[in-house]
Amino acid sequence: MYHLLRRWRRSLRVLGLAIALAIAIALTQLWDSYPSSAQTAIPQQSTPLQDSLPAPRIHPLPPSLAEWQDDSQAGDYFSAIQPTQVGYLVWSQFPIRVYVEPTLASGAADGRSPVWVEAVTQAVQEWNAYLPLQQVESPESADIAIWRRVPPLMREGNGLPRARSAETRYELYVQNLQHSEPETEILAHRFTILLRPSQTADYLRAAARHELGHALGLWGHSPIQTDALYFSQVRTPPPISKRDVNTLKRVYEQPTRLGWAMN
Question: With b meaning 16 or more CB within 10 Å and e meaning fewer, what string describes 21-42?
């Protein structure tokens, strides 16, 4: 009876924290014109939600980044990466599970769906060289879900709508680690990426490469056109650069609340 009551109280606590996190934090990053991300911050004063969050700590580097060395000293754009209210958007459990909407899932018959899937899959494989990624068949089991969808229109300062090629969002939640003893709840995050289907293969691949960079922790933009995380589209999309990877490595050397046990 005691164990059942304890589990019931734990479930209510997790549900309450999950609802509070969903309400307290909502971050959006847009790919087309790269406006600043919209953020609803956690209150700075002590609150039950704030007190329940883990203290920021540094995770060990994944082996692929620990082994990364840039002999050319190309530099980075770490100063442009935006820390959030929970710290840097660092993954600590690998492989990171990525869902790519399959060819027939959207029901479209415009002839571009196979091109879309191939382009996005290639972008996933490119980033897999630097962080372990695994494509999964179910969006429910994914850490990053990539959908073949047209992003909602964005309102400009003058109130006029503007089309976008992609959108990346993340949400925070409380994850119960299965098979852990004692039971452990950690602060976790997951991403949703929308990619406009009506683009050429090169631009689809560039958009997916760019948005995946955001989802892997590069929550900001480079000022240099030769980086995949450059703030705007370019005529010849660049591959993942040394500066991109240098910045990614620096991000993973920073403290974060993500991936640590809830208080």
Answer: beebbebebbbbebeebeeeeb
